[in-house]
Design goal:
eleven-stranded mixed β-sheet, Rossmann fold, 2 domains, DHBP synthase
């Protein structure tokens, strides 16, 4: 298969509407989309990513009026979150509309729904004219793709089209909140922080487990994610590191240790989140064997960065 690389939103949307699978930019990471009314395309999407069939997909919509096409019910708590954070980097888990196929929800009676803020993504979804199931546009388990070059590296020849856009401005997958039960729960941390969520819905709690024996309601909780080929070593800001290797790297907000071959010092948590996956991929391209990653605090955006780092390192 030849993957079409295009700057035309119209061309990309027409390919998806014809039953194709299309990668497209969002503010979080690049997504890989299939129309929820195209079961063969959904199956091909799983195959292209190497994604387990029991890992549910997030459905992307252009406007909030489409929610009734995807969700069977929207409680008051979800409505408040939608008013505050849609469009944006927030996914809500809601009771699913019977029209949403179980291949999208991995057999669950709930569905994750997001309305992206990225203008290219919004115009693409508008022209698609249907809800679009879209996980991240990378091979499963690898660092998510935050630019179109990374998508091509992982999926060239496996997908129908890549809609080229600018690099993702956030660089971390969306925050996920489960609003399908009596008490809303943060399932995955992201750019919409727990503190921001609780300012709107104070009763939201964080899922302390983040590892579930039962089937999870959202992506990113069951299988290994975000990992580069290099080994990840987590460290504190005040920790003395003896790199001791000519093929080691460092990313964080402190000065890098002596002896590392490659490093990225971030000025803000926002920069840390935006650069993380791209740095992982750069390290792989340079043959780096060990990456020292500084753990930020668990407050604000630091919670999301810590989550991605711990998952990449295989720490539960």
């Amino acid at each position: 298969m030849q993957t079409i690389l295009t700057d035309s939103i119209e061309e990309a949307a027409s390919i998806l509407n014809a039953g194709g699978i299309v990668a497209f930019p969002t503010e979080t990471v690049y997504g890989l989309g299939a129309g929820i009314g195209h079961p063969e395309a959904i199956s091909r999407l799983f195959l292209a990513k190497g994604r387990p069939a029991d890992n549910p997909l997030i459905v992307h919509i252009f406007r909030t009026e489409q929610l009734e096409e995807v969700a069977a019910a929207i409680n008051l708590q979800a409505q408040r979150l939608i008013k505050s954070f849609f469009p944006g980097p927030l996914t809500l888990v809601l009771p699913k509309n019977p029209a949403v196929p179980y291949s999208v929800t991995a057999g669950l009676e709930t569905v994750g729904v997001r309305c992206p803020a990225n203008p290219v993504a919004r115009e693409f979804l508008r022209l698609c004219g249907c809800a679009v199931a879209a996980p991240s546009a990378n091979r499963s388990g690898l660092p998510s793709a935050t630019n179109w070059e990374a998508v091509m590296q992982d999926l060239d020849g496996k997908i129908d089209c890549l809609l080229r856009g600018k690099p993702s401005t956030i660089g971390l997958e969306s925050t996920i909140v489960d609003c399908s039960g009596a008490t809303p729960m943060l399932l995955r941390a992201g750019a919409v922080t727990l503190e921001q969520l609780q300012a709107v819905v104070p009763e939201i709690t964080a899922n302390a487990l983040m590892e579930q024996e039962e089937q999870p309601k959202c992506p990113g909780l069951k299988y290994p994610h975000y990992a580069p080929k290099a080994s990840i070593v987590l460290c504190r800001a005040d920790e003395k590191i003896a790199a001791g290797s000519d093929s080691s790297a460092f990313i964080g907000m402190s000065l890098p240790p002596q002896g590392v071959t490659l490093f990225k010092v971030c000025r803000t948590l926002e920069e840390y989140g935006r650069e993380l996956f791209g740095f992982f991929r750069l390290c792989d391209a340079r043959g780096i064997q060990v990456i020292y990653c500084e753990l930020p605090s668990s407050e604000g955006l630091g919670r999301a960065i810590r989550d991605r780092l711990m998952r990449a390192a295989g720490v539960s």
